[in-house]
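Methods — Computational structure assignment.
A single polypeptide chain was analysed. Its primary sequence is given first, followed by the predicted tertiary structure written as structure tokens.
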Amino acid sequence: MRELENEIIKYWIEGGILYSVYNKPLKGTYEVIKSVIDLRHQISNNEKQYWCYNIHGLKALNKDARDYADINGQELLHACAVVVSSQLTKFIFNTFLMIKKPKIHFKAFKDKDS
């Protein structure tokens, strides 16, 4: 199993899928999201991945962070499953994705196994 970590997030590849978890609760600023994406690119070795992105601990994203993620966050990904903390968050996230129509397949789930 390959792992890569910084003070913000931990990544690991298991069974051909990239997983991540935040190391501590934080606010999603431009600097935080850029660090998350840069580290994901490092562990991906410039190859597309399927990503199970656990967003527990991410409290909010400011506009600069959202804009940066919208432009750069979908690189080197086939698809992304986002693990959220509640059914309401799952509903809101999936509704937003239907409207936003990202470049890759995104979907929110309540747990990693789903």
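Note: Strands lie at 2-5, 9-14, 17-22, 26-28, 49-54, 58-61, 77-83, 105-109.
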